[in-house]
Amino acid sequence: MTDKESDATETESPVVLAVDNEKRVVQAFELWLNDDYSVETATSGQEALNQMHDGVDVVLLDRHMPGLSGEDVLEGIRKQGYDCHVAMVTAVDPDFDIVEMPFDYYVSKPVDEPTLQSIITELLELREYEDKVSELYRVCQKITTLEAKKPRQRLNEDERYQELLEARETLQATTRELVTTREMSAFEDIFEAKQ
């Protein structure tokens, strides 16, 4: 494999940013995840914010760090408008203060490799679903706009409109498939009220 091919492969892998002030923790995460993801690490909140970029897909974020806390980093990520999912991976037990925190997943340490892999897989699947739903929404809006302003005959004759209809059908099938291929038990665990 040439260097150019290697670079292309690396950029195609989802990017995970692991943030923890304990160097051994981010090293463990990197070791566990390196085969499947492009892993970047930071050992402080400020370093994490400095390393953030649009290519980051998932952030694994500790809450309790000196200087900028995980909560500060999370707030900075959201204020700067980065479109990534954040999993809080922390020894801090959750309390009602998490209600206002804009993270996607919360897991208490210690965490093992299968759990971490599962969390990232779930967040990436969620991202794919969100992307497809957003794309479907845009296509449907274009169809609705054209149908409101153009006569049916012109619509039927226009190749671009027909392509929109085909795109809508494909995206509808894809989003249905993404939902049905998810383990139903995962949805039940998340969405069913626990007694």
Automatic annotation (TrEMBL):
Q: What is this protein called?
A: Response regulator
Gene3D superfamilies in UniProt: 3.40.50.2300
Task: Specify the species.
Answer: Halovenus rubra
Do you know which Pfam families this protein is assigned to? HalX, Response_reg
InterPro entries, A to Z: Bact_response_regulator, CheY-like_superfamily, HalX_domain, Sig_transdc_resp-reg_receiver
The stretch of residues making up the signal peptide is none
Q: Which SUPFAM superfamilies match?
A: CheY-like
Keywords annotated in UniProt: Phosphoprotein
The chain residues annotated with the modification 4-aspartylphosphate are 62
Keyword Phosphoprotein carried by entry: yes
Q: Where is the Response regulatory domain?
A: 15-124
Q: Output the lineage of the source organism.
A: Archaea, Methanobacteriati, Methanobacteriota, Stenosarchaea group, Halobacteria
Key word Transmembrane present in the record? no
